[in-house]
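Input.
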Amino acid sequence: MIELKELHIKNFASFRKADLILDNKGLLFVEGENRDDDSAESNASGKSNLLSSIGWCLTGRTPDGRRYDEVIFSGEKSVSVKLDFNICSLERRRGSKAGIYINGRKTTQDEVNELFGIDPDLFYSSTFLGQDFISFFDMKPAARKELLMDFLPGDIISECNLLYDRAKKWLKDDAEDKIRIETKLQTTKRQLEELKVRVDDLKNKSLNFEKSKEEFIKGLEKEKEKVKEEKRAELEKVEKKLLEVGSEIKKLKTTLTKLNKHYIQLQKDFSCIKGKELGLFQKFTSVRTVLSILEKEKKKLLDLKVGKCPVCKSDVTEEHKKKCIKEVDSKISVKRKEYEGISKELEKVRKQIAEIEPDVNDLDRDVRSKELELERKDSSLKRLTERKELLKKELERVEIEYDKRILEKKNSDNVWERERRLAVKKVVALEAEVEKLTEELEAIEEDRKVLEIIRDMCGSTGIQAALFDQFVSELQSMTNSVLETIGSDLSVEYTTQKETKKGTVLESLEINVYENGELCLGLSGGQRQKVRIASSLALAEMSKNRSGKELGFMLLDEPHRGLDRAGQQKLFEIFLNMLSYKPLIIVASPQSDFKSMFSESIKVVKEDGESFLL
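Output.
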């Protein structure tokens, strides 16, 4: 048995460097922790990369198909993975000193396959069960048979196998193609008829659309003219009102000019009369004052008996007194006449003022009234002017908006016509497809006749079929033995022939699963996983029998995926039973609460984009 002792990684995938001793590890649990993303928990921590490095070193590719520089750690130029076995040391490198080395000697993949008794497909079907690879049980029947055919020896068998496989594949392909083409032909004909009806319907809809579009455009044009007519009528009213107000303002200005001119002249005359009144009043006051003084002097003279004369300052005599009184009376008479004359003239002037002042006030009120009216007219003129400009803009806006709507409607895409044209093209294409499919069916029928002859010669009644059936029988027994060992009530039946509905027999490798002797029409996640593991172990045992070499380890990447809690518990118990077949079983899983069931465990931690082992 080939046992894996040590694993040494350098710049592989998310690992920059990792060294792992695997000797005597038994059931090894690999858990993960992604410190770069707390929400990811153990996902993307590098657990799968750890297992993939072993597969890459042995086969040259990972379960998900990475082969060359795709596995190199980001930013590095080389990668190497070294596996130490009990029989040799195997190292694979890319970049610096690229190649495969056995005990330091450069070798080839064929030598590796021969040494370990495997090839990539067999390894990933029997030894590595991962989330990114299809197991032997999950393969399609044709893929299963193709994998198992490599176990049959002999040039004749190989030649028969080649002929049989080709004939079977071609017959199967032809049968599938015939069904596919017939189905497609019927579907195409139905689609063609439906499409022709659709074309007629789209034609009517297209015509109706164009008719409704024309009617809608006419309606828009009528609506546009109606709105424009309303705006024009309102604009004409505003312009007419502008002319009226302008004429009224002109008349008001003329009237106001005349009134102002008259008012200024009247104010000027009124001011002159008022000035004259003031002069007369001052003169009147002065004369009245002098007259009062003279009367007082006369009274003093009349009352004077002796002393000095208040007029001439001479000694008072009777004769002098009379003389002075006479002079004073003469002055009083003159002044009184002057006083009376001024009084009459003042009264006349005041009468003129009384006559003119109401006219001045009336004229002032008229001027102010006209000025207020002019202001109102100017304000009205301004509003009318603004309204006129607004109406002009509205007319332009109506023209633009309606023209835009009309243009948009004229340019609106006739979806029905566009669909009709596309449908017509499809009709032409479908008619060509019908003709092509009919010719293909005729060609398939001719090919089938030839292939049936080849299949009958090298098919199920030949040596190849007999040897294959014997090998499959052994594989079935081995699979059921493994299922029994791991404590399962399941059993499998491998069938190499399948009868079609038409009565023909197809060579394949179907797997029927039974539970307590009853055929399972649907498998639970746990049942499916048990059969996967058992079929892989059985295939590995058959490979050992053929090559005489057995790999003493098995790699399982999240094998519990799809199972409920109870199923996961049962699965991990199965791993314990598997140790009788494989002394080393490495299981990568995010279910850390199952770790206690394992004899050994390691943790893969990813931090700052780099995975490492704890």
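The chain has ten helices and 15 strands.
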